[in-house]
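Exercise: predict the fold of this chain.
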Amino acid sequence: MIKDLGGLLKQAQTLQKNITEAQEKAAAATAEGASGGGLVRVVVNGKGEIESLSIDPSLMTPDDAPVLEDLIRAAHAQAKREVDEKVAEEMKAATAGMGPLPFPMPGMK
């Protein structure tokens, strides 16, 4: 039993180290989303926060405000999906080969 406990502790420590590294990589990840044929571009970080926003000047008219708002939301949604995929890949790589744990890990499926 003690041998199993030691192995489990080592596995948990390795998992913790891998997850910490993956979280750091995920936080540094960025993704770009574009909409309106590239007229609106959004770059988000690993948390899905907007890092930069680029709007083509041709969209800067009062009549185009509703369209512009939709394009910004669409570009942000695309970038957020991409960065979420990158984060998921980092977490999957961090836990690869660990095998099933005998207890549930918060935030892990």
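Check your answer against the key: The chain has a mean pLDDT of 83.
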